[in-house]
Design a protein that fits this description.
- The chain is mainly alpha-helical.
- The protein has one domain: Fumarate reductase/succinate dehydrogenase, transmembrane subunit (3 helical TM bundles of succinate and fumarate reductases, Up-down Bundle).
- α2 runs antiparallel to α4 and α4 runs antiparallel to α5.
- The radius of gyration is 18 Å and the shape is elongated.
- The mean pLDDT is 88.
Length: 129
């Protein structure tokens, strides 16, 4: 099950089966989520209102759109890392692990892409207020 096997490539583990990089990435994205989530909540509460037009105008500024995109990337990557561990722990067949981890990768990339597209569409004025 080293780096030469299918599951080893999906997991990103070397032949020694060390998951320390995975563990480190989970911690880094957790801190990132905490900081960006705090920014998100504080900046939302600083808005004069929560009306649709005000939110669209808020997201349309670069100082909000860029951190929102970073937050999206961090959240979906953290989600992928965490659920990968769950699947590896509870799916016992190797083929099932590969299938579900690939499905998880597709889901997390597609979800992040949709969210980023939506943020960019608002930021570049594609959504009427």
């Amino acid at each position: 099950m080293g780096s030469g096997t299918g599951i080893g490539r999906v997991r990103g583990l070397g032949s020694a089966k060390h998951g320390s990089m995975h563990w480190w990435r989970q911690r880094v994205t957790a801190v990132s989520n905490l900081l960006l989530g705090l920014w998100f909540v504080v900046s939302l509460f600083r808005l004069p209102s929560f009306e649709h037009g005000a939110i669209i105008q808020w997201i349309g500024t670069p100082m909000v759109a860029v951190p929102l995109i970073l937050f999206t990337i961090s959240v979906f990557y953290h989600l992928r890392l965490g659920l990968q561990v769950v699947m590896e722990d509870y799916v016992h067949e190797e083929a099932g692990k590969v299938f579900f981890v690939l499905l998880l990768n597709f889901y997390s990339i597609a979800g992040a892409a949709l969210a980023i597209f939506s943020i960019l569409k608002i930021a570049f004025g594609g959504v009427p207020a």
